[in-house]
Design goal:
globular; 425 residues; alpha/beta; two-stranded antiparallel sheet; 30% helix
């Protein structure tokens, strides 16, 4: 069965996360997006864990569904959580985020019990633990050999395994003798597989992509496409073996649009390419303080291969822009505007899901029910004919699909006669 999965999200119990991130809403919005399997996120939080146990019922082995969703196409949930580790190792303070996958509530409960001895799990959906990343792997594997740990957004400057501000130079430095149990890594919004392919040491792991969403609208902004049976073990096995017949491709943000792609200093409005940073010795040209070193710079620092290198057996990927952003850019309006939402809803009704619109729908068919620029915008994104001012120091990149003179602000003029479902595949 071919399906899309997004494993890394957050619940309403995480800081800076929408209160709309509930089981019911996540289940509904996953369908809108075209996501079949969604991570629960935050299973370490006692209140969220309680809600998950009350509102989810078993589906296929290791997967669950919202108990009130009785439709055959119901969203499946996979138990996941993210933990934040701040600790000292060999004289340096490291800050690393990790994702945990658990095959059952029993396993998740064992993990929670062990972690509750170390930190306050009630404080945040993504708890802060003074625990070596290696020790988390031990706890997870001791709880259940089928549970896995994956480094989150592996290149983000402040909180990741390779982060410029607090990371390591290799997986081995972080996980020591338990490195063989780390068989996947998350690219994060500011990097894509092509950037990771430049490091030969990463050939042995599988690159996965997830939204790290804090709101319903951002679910699936990065995701994974599989062709396996629906089960926890089948999904994990497809990731572990990197089988191209079972793990088809990842869906990626354009990395330039991520918040930490380039170097820079947000307070001074300074954005720098890696070569500019080197010329300035890492200092902001406005205030003289050190700039935040972004993902592109860090990749170049550790890379042992040229730009464009693709290792054999690499899982392919597609770079997309969320549909709401394309519509907003085409019309020159804000993503939250009424006109953008109206067009978005009509497209979902017509084509079945956001991913169907982004990947498969005929632009000419899209143009029949939207301003023509929307269909043209989707086509340009598919073909990579866009411009992005790279993000830096916590500032998202600025997407440009149309020049100002090209945009149309015309409202939708046609009505949809009847809904239809199109397959993403």
């Amino acid at each position: 069965m071919k399906f899309i999965a997004d494993f890394h999200i957050h619940s309403k119990y995480s800081r800076a996360t929408s209160q709309q991130m509930t089981v019911e809403n996540i289940a509904k919005w996953a369908k809108i997006k075209g996501i079949k399997v969604i991570g629960t996120g935050d299973f370490t939080h006692p209140f969220w864990f309680k809600e998950l146990k009350e509102k989810l019922v078993p589906a296929e082995p290791g997967l669950f569904k919202w108990k009130e969703d009785i439709n055959s196409d119901s969203t499946r949930f996979l138990l996941t959580a993210e933990t934040s580790h701040i600790y000292s190792k060999k004289g340096k303070v490291h800050r690393v985020h990790l994702i945990i996958f658990a095959p059952s509530f029993e396993t998740a409960e064992k993990i929670n019990t062990r972690l509750s001895w170390i930190g306050n799990l009630k404080s945040d959906g993504r708890p802060i633990l003074g625990l070596d990343a290696k020790e988390l792997v031990k706890i997870v594997l001791d709880s259940d050999p089928q549970a896995i740990v994956v480094p989150s957004h592996a290149w983000t400057p402040w909180f990741s395994v390779f982060g410029s501000m607090s990371g390591f130079n290799s997986l081995e430095e972080c996980f020591d003798d338990l490195t063989p149990h780390i068989f996947a890594g998350e690219t994060g919004l500011s990097s894509d597989p092509a950037m990771n392919w430049r490091l030969s040491k990463l050939d042995k792991i599988t690159l996965i992509s997830n939204s790290d969403s804090h709101s319903l609208e951002k679910l699936g902004r990065e995701a994974n496409v599989f062709d396996t049976e629906l089960s926890y073990s089948a999904i994990v096995e497809a990731i572990k073996t990197k089988d191209p017949k079972k793990f088809l491709f990842t869906i990626e943000f354009f990395p330039e649009e991520g918040k930490y792609h380039y170097d820079g200093h947000r307070l001074c409005g300074v954005r720098l390419a890696p070569e500019q940073t080197r010329k300035l010795n890492g200092k902001c040209p406005q205030c003289g303080r050190g700039v935040t070193i972004g993902v592109m710079n860090r990749v170049e620092e550790l890379a042992d291969r040229p730009v464009g290198y693709k290792p054999s057996g690499a899982i392919p990927y597609k770079s997309l822009v969320p549909l709401g952003e394309i519509i907003a850019e085409a019309l020159g309006l804000g993503v939250a505007s009424k006109s953008v939402k109206e067009i978005y809803n009509n497209l979902i009704t017509k084509f079945g899901s956001e991913f169907s619109v982004l990947i498969e729908a005929d632009p000419q068919e899209i143009k029949k029910i939207t301003p023509p620029k929307v269909g043209e915008g989707i086509l340009r994104v598919r073909e990579g004919r866009i411009k992005i001012e790279p993000g830096y120091d916590g500032q998202y990149g600025k997407l440009v699909i149309f020049e100002e003179a090209e945009r149309s602000g015309s409202p939708i003029s046609e009505q949809i006669n009847e809904p239809s479902q199109k397959s993403l595949f």
